[in-house]
Amino acid sequence: MQVSIYNTMSRSVEPFVPLSSDTVGMYCCGPTVYNYAHIGNLRTYIFEDLLHRILTYSGYDLTHVMNITDVGHLSDDGDEGEDKMERRSRESGMSVYDIARMYTQSFFNDTGSLNIITPDITCKATDHIQEMIDLIMRLEERGHTYISGGNVYFSIDTFPQYGRLARLKLDQLSSGARIEVDENKRNPKDFVLWFTKGKFENQAMKWDSPWGVGYPGWHLECSAMSMKYLGDSFDIHCGGIDHVSVHHTNEIAQSEAATGKEWVKYWVHGEFLIDETGKMSKSKGDFLTLSLLIDKGFDPLDFRYFCLTGHYRSQLIFSWASLQAARGGRINLKKQIQAIRKASDDIRKPVASNEAQAILDEFETHIATDLHIPQALAVLWKLVKDKEIDPAEKLSLIENMDSIFALDLLQEERQEDDPVPEEILALVQKRTEAKKNRDFTQADSLRDEIREKGYAVKDTKDGVEITRTV
Ligand code: AMP
Ligand code: ZN
């Protein structure tokens, strides 16, 4: 199966040809563990999981590395603002290390319940301070750094290719744009490699270094850790689209200036999940988490299914109604698959017929072509509804497809017998009585109360039907 993928560097879909014939190295920027992941972040990890699954499906021996940012990520992606971990520590009264531990755990709980495969290597920034110091020393030796106001900066003017990924127009930037200029910087786009002084002296996490006690700039960790585990050059680097212009641009500058080699062959970025207001930020305080979805009665796999319905390079708009629709689709799919299991006595037969082979080919073409997952999902639906293919053959195809979708399609549905809460049943009962007593005002107000609690009632000839609305 020849995989192709959109490379942000070339702005085109390219055939995937790994640097080495049998192994593939993939690095994905991981979470900043100062708070729960929001469902936007989780969309990015689902897209990376799909890429992981497609590459292993295609037979590559993949090494997937992801960092955990537990130091140095400021509230601004440049060098402004406060360290996100420190701010959370001040607000919560917990130590930065406890915060990191707690939110790292919650992150892996979320990714586990979304069937996201844990990367082969997950590495914490705070465990790699020495590697970061070594990298700064290499950059220093090659003349790419300067010290100003106590901090070590990367000088972008020493790296002429700076901004290639984001296609930054640097001349226009320095002459036209209004940027908050750090007076220590020779060029406004220079960035900090090591902080020792400035507004962050009370930092709880600090380490000794040749430049004094301090801590690393955020971008540095990804360069240092990816090169430690995947070598000076590797195949794929992923992240959310927001990282193109600053974080990944600076990662490239540091890495390539240090080694003199091309660092990454394919840059793969996932578009944002946004809510109806057009944003989804976790610094705003109030945000959508997987736990909130679960509290509202959704299965984490409803969210995974929802993400599979959009292409990773398109924005996806979250609403409760679309999540409910995804839930309906997923449950319906599983019901149909249950019927196929019954019809075949749960026996699976390898693909043999031309019809089944054609479905498999179609599925593989979609997953191999720049992650066309929504189209691949449509092929699954076509298979499920097909009247010709032997159910036992269908089952083996479904099992195969689910190695990519990871929707637990062949497992019993956990929530099908999810009961309507007692409170709702009691209100429905009261409404039925009110109707019997012809007190329609009371019946209507009970219906509204039930709706506010997330359920709809409908009178059918077989009785009252209760459905969830959120
Ligand atoms: P962070 O924990 O803020 O470092 O972000 C973790 C990952 O989530 C990064 O790859 C971001 O690019 C990505 N990300 C942030 N916001 C969103 C969003 N609204 N939708 C999709 N991905 C996002
Ligand atoms: Zn990164």
In a few lines, what is going on in this structure?
The protein has helices at residues 39-57, 84-92, 96-113, 129-141, 170-175, 218-230, 244-259, 290-295, 300-308, 320-343, 354-368, 373-385, 391-405, 422-436, 440-452; strands at 4-7, 12-15, 23-28, 61-68, 121-124, 145-148, 151-154, 191-195, 215-216, 234-240, 264-270, 273-274, 316-317, 455-460, 463-468. The chain is of the alpha/beta class. The radius of gyration is 26 Å and the shape is globular.
Describe the structure.
- It is a single chain.
- With about 475 residues, the chain is α/β, with parallel strands linked by helices.
- It has 3 domains: about 20-270, HUPs (Rossmann fold, 3-Layer(aba) Sandwich); about 275-405, Up-down Bundle (Four Helix Bundle (Hemerythrin (Met), subunit A)), CATH 1.20.120; about 420-470.
- Helices cover about 45% and strands about 15% of the residues.
- It has helices at about 40-55, 85-90, 95-115, 130-140, 170-175, 220-230, 245-260, 290-295, 300-310, 320-345, 355-370, 375-385, 390-405, 420-435, 440-450, and strands spanning about 5, 10-15, 25-30, 60-70, 120-125, 145-150, 150-155, 190-195, 215, 235-240, 265-270, 275, 315, 455-460, 465-470.
- The strands form 5 sheets. The chain has a 5-stranded parallel sheet, sandwiched between helices. The protein has a 4-stranded antiparallel sheet with strand order 6-7-8-9. A two-stranded antiparallel ribbon has the order 1-2.
- Strand 3 (about 25-30), helix 1 and strand 4 form a beta-alpha-beta unit.
- Helix 12 packs antiparallel against helix 13 (about 390-405) and helix 14 (about 420-435) packs antiparallel against helix 15 (about 440-450).
- The protein binds adenosine monophosphate and zinc ion.
- Adenosine monophosphate (AMP) binds near residues 32 and 44.
